[in-house]
Amino acid sequence: MSTKFYTLLTDIGAAKLASAAALGVPLKITHMAVGDGGGVLPTPDAKQTALVNEKRRAALNMLYIDPQNSSQIIAEQVIPENEGGWWIREVGLFDESGALIAVGNCPESYKPQLAEGSGRTQTVRMVLITSSTDNIILKIDPAVVLATRKYVDDKISEHEQSRRHPDASLTAKGFTQLSSATNSESEILAATPKAVKAAYDLAAGKASASHTHPWNQITGVPAASLTVKGTVQLSSATNSTSETQAATPKAVKAVYDLAAGKAPVSHTHPWNQITDVPAASLTVKGTVQLSSATNSTSETQAATPKAVKAAYDLAAGKAPVSHTHPWSQITDVPAASLTVKGTVQLSSATNSTSETQAATPKAVKAVYDLANGKQPADATLTALAGLATAADKLPYFTGNDTASLTTLTNVGRDILAKTSKQEVIRYLGLGDTSGYVGRRLSTRAFASSGTYTPSPETKRIRVTITGGGGGGGGCKATSNNETFFGAGGGAGGTIISIMTPTQNSYPVTIGAGGAGGVSATNGTRGGNSVFASLIAPGGEGGGKVGVTNTNGGNGGVPSTGDIRITGGDGGDGQSGNIGVSGEGGTSYWGGGGRAGAGGGVRGRAFGSGGGGAYDAGYSGTSMTGGKGADGVCIIEEFA
């Protein structure tokens, strides 16, 4: 059974609660309103900004978090006996700005006035479920509300608890025992003035925070080292290696005076003070002796500019690397042959047998032109060339590169004399006056809607078109007295028809398979498939004539075309408390989807029905029937 009475957050309330969570500014709910719904029980709507017909709005009497469920906020309002005269069918919660945060409906209740002879005080309670109560301030104004019975009972209970006086602790207030001890470690006793005075007198006899000591009273002072700060002994030695003493100014002066008598970092020496300078070689840098010789092989001397000039002048009088010679200066050039590279004489002859001359482009062109007009010699030509010609004989191949002769009849001569396929067809006596012979050209398939354009040679078309299959029925049951087995959807009808195309193009509409029923509802009907005047109807969805009777959908029944094939009916799903079949109807193209636990199986063959859904365990879960298969249109073209 579906829920009839419920409470929900309005869109405004949801937005304010989300904003409160994001900004950390809690939402303050302060008022509750009741109304009569305009005379009928209203359905709460998240888009509401006010009650349908508000009768009373006042501050909340109680607003608290449910101690049994921390995600529930309970709001209560007491309507006194002197107010009423109307029905209560709707309730709303408002924040401090007057915005409607939550709205709900409730069982109809009449609130009488005292003047009507009934002095009833009525409490209205509203439960609001939210993911987080941290973002809502539970705020009421005690000055303007009436106390509910529960509130009074809770306060009485709280007062009774207050007569039980707990002991004080570090975390809770309470009663405590006094103690004058000054060495106690107790954390549940309180010190007396006597204990405080004893501690004060002890502290007064101690040294003040700011006082001094002579050095001889200071003990435990560490000696300084590389790792520890401390006292240090001075030393004037300049050759000590101690790491525990400190140098005196005297030692520093002695070292400074020694350094002052040394040469500075940047200083010079005359050459005669430089010793052990190495002589330069191929492997060592050093001093070198100059030489102006141009025929020396020394590797320890350096050439002078004079030697370099002499070598340059000699090179300048020689030929450059890139230079030329006239042919008359080239000697000993060999003649070209089959075995030696060299000079060669050209020839334009095409009948020469010379092996020492080269052909000119003229000779090459003459040979090319001669060869270009010839048929390549291959095994096929060889086979044909081997046949002996004769009258009324036609050569043909009996195998790869093998040929023979057959007699050419008058019929063969007549056929060979025709200049078109149509002339040959007419000669053979095929086709009608329009030229139609029934030769299949191609096949076009449409699984979705589109446009068919006939091929140029097409004279006839054979159209096979099927409508969409119906969807299987759904189910939802907690016992066998409810709809626990949905029926199968019917298959789409099929038409087969021969047509003569008269248009340049035709729209093709493919019927979609019907959707499966959701929960305990029928599947939807499959769509019609249409081509020209042909209408292939879709199958009906799995039906439901009662809570415990689900009939299979009827197959589509065509009313146009040459051959009309009715689609198969879907299988019944449930008869009383007995499960039957629930299979989808079989189309021209194949069987439908089977029934399925947890959801019917969709039809696979074109135009087949979807299977029904069943729930043998009566889980109460909403289950969906299988979708019917889409239709199809097959167009065969004939010349």
TrEMBL record:
The protein's matches in Pfam families, at most eight in alphabetical order, are given as:
Gly_rich_2 (PF21722), Phage_fiber_2 (PF03406), Phage_tail_fib (PF12571)
Looking at the record, the residues that make up the Glycine-rich domain are: 449-636
Per UniProt, subcellular location reads as: Virion
Write out the entry's keywords from A to Z. Answer: Host-virus interaction
- Keyword hit for Disulfide bond: no
Annotated region Disordered: where?
541-586
The domain of life is: Bacteria
What InterPro entries does this protein's entry cite?
Answer: Gly_rich_dom, Phage_lambda_Stf-r2, Phage_Tail_Fiber_Structural, Phage_tail_fibre_N
> The Phage tail fibre protein N-terminal domain covers which part of the protein?
1-150
Residue spans with biased composition (Gly residues)? 567-586
Which BP terms does GO give this entry?
symbiont entry into host cell; virion attachment to host cell
Signal peptide extent? none
Give a yes or no for keyword Membrane in this entry. no
Full protein name: Tail fiber protein
Which organism is the protein's source?
Escherichia coli
